[in-house]
Amino acid sequence: MDDKDLEKLGITDHLTRSILGSHFWVIQVDYAMKSGLPIPRKNFLRDWKQLYGKETLENFPAYLDLIRMKKVAPLFKNKKFKDILEMDSQDLKHLGVELARDRLKLIKNFWRIKRRIFFEDIFKRIESQDSNKSN
């Protein structure tokens, strides 16, 4: 049972659907382990690439839509992506993001983006060092 199935059943709250989906996944894993079946995998990588892929990050309004924050997209018009990532709660409040939970959600996602960029940079450095050593 996935998010869309739960929504069809009338569960409209995203957090509730997410929690139920996680519980269903745990049940599937438990059943698979007891039955000797292959363990089902969550779509973490697919979801990660969709949320933090280069194409998505280059289109910030589309990214905000993916994290269900489309309503604040107009506030970031004419802002540089690098400057957006450095914003803190006060900056976001000054910009017009009134609700504390929205500011927190944005800041958490900014940190995820910064971590992804950091790790991509590290992996590129490691790969270049490995290729230099082999030459």
Automatic annotation (TrEMBL):
Domain of life: Eukaryota
SAM domain span: 52-116
Pfam families linked: SAM_2
Family matches, as InterPro entries: SAM, SAM/pointed_sf
Protein's UniProt name: SAM domain-containing protein
Originating species: Gigaspora rosea
